[in-house]
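Class, look over these structure tokens:
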Amino acid sequence: MPSRTIGEMIAGGQIVHITPDASIYQACELMVERSVGAILVMEQGRLHGILSERDVVHGLVVPRADPDQTSVQSLMTPDPQTAPPETPAVDALVTMQDAGFRHLPVVSVEGEVYGMVTLGDFLAPEVATAEQEAASGMQVYESPSV
């Protein structure tokens, strides 16, 4: 069975992004609204960086900076590692694990932004299978307590 690609994994999804000059407050509002842990930082269709919840905590909360006065550009990870949409999912997962990423922007060699794959995206088929099994009446056994 052929491996799915990260392009297939994110197909049909929306690209959640913000501009580098936006405030951290605006970025956090967007992340809450879209229920995401990271957003792409883009300008004129090009990827400039990525901003994650971790970036906000380390760069804003701990130093007690003002979220209205702090720009996305000042806390984002600039020029993040990316992968093209034809990358096999397993290869992207290994890349993310090796580098300690939870989010990997999907960008073509030409610079076209397709979206972002997250660690949670890799669980989707397993969750769907579990839901199908539960709906079909299959018994799910719990492991014994230790």
